[in-house]
Amino acid sequence: MPPEQVEPAGAPCPRCQAPLVPQTVRTAIWQGDRLAVIEDVPGHVCTSCMEQFYDDNVSDAMRRLTEDGFPADAAQREIRVPVFSLKGRIRKPAAMTEDADVD
Ligand SMILES: [Zn+2]
Question: In this predicted model, what pLDDT tens digit does every residue of 4-53 receive, in sequence order?
Fold first, then answer.
């Protein structure tokens, strides 16, 4: 029998080739102005760039939840999330300021 097309265990990160470790993660998905958090997600996390990867069946489960529009009655719980703005918080490059302290 030919081998199945299965991700080999311990496959390196596709982005940076560092080792991946299995880890239960959470992720957040925006749908327009709505934000949904999904937890208890079995993922593989890169030890270097921290990128998260999911098996196909895990991706399928998240895609189905997204396609269902995250029905409110399926939510386990709700959390309050503080929202911040970068308006007025972005510093201009130091080279642009007249009174920059240059030694
Ligand atoms: Zn990586």
Answer: 444 555 689 999 999 999 999 999 999 999 999 999 999 999 999 999 99
d(CA 16, CA 3): 27
Residue 19 CA, ligand 1 centroid: distance in Å: 8
Domain count, the chain: 1
Residue 64 lies in a domain: yes
Residue 52 Cα to ligand 1 midpoint, Å, equals 8
Which positions ≥6 away from 32 have C-beta within 8 Å? none
Q: How far is the CA of 50 from the centre of ligand 1 (A)?
A: 6
